[in-house]
Amino acid sequence: MTSLAAERPLRRYEALRPEIPGHANRQAAATTTGGWVRRDEAIMGTAITAELWSDDARSGHAAAAVVMAEMHRIDRRMSPHRADSELSRINQGAGVRPVPLSEEMFRLLTRAQEFAARSQGAFDITYAAVGHLYDYRAGVAPEDAALAAARAAVGWQHLELDAHTRTVRFHRPGMRIDLGGFAKGYAVDNAIALVRQLGVRHAYIAAGGDSRVLGSRRGRPWTVAIRDPRRAGEVVAVLPLEDTAISTSGDYERYFDAPGPAGEVVRHHHLIDPATGRSPRHVASVTILAPDGLTAEALGKAVFVLGAARGLELLETIPGVDAVIIDSQGRLHTTPGLKNAGATSEP
Question: Domains (ranges, CATH) in the chain?
Answer without folding.
Answer: 1-29+217-347 (3.10.520.10), 41-80+179-212 (no CATH), 86-170 (1.10.3980.10)
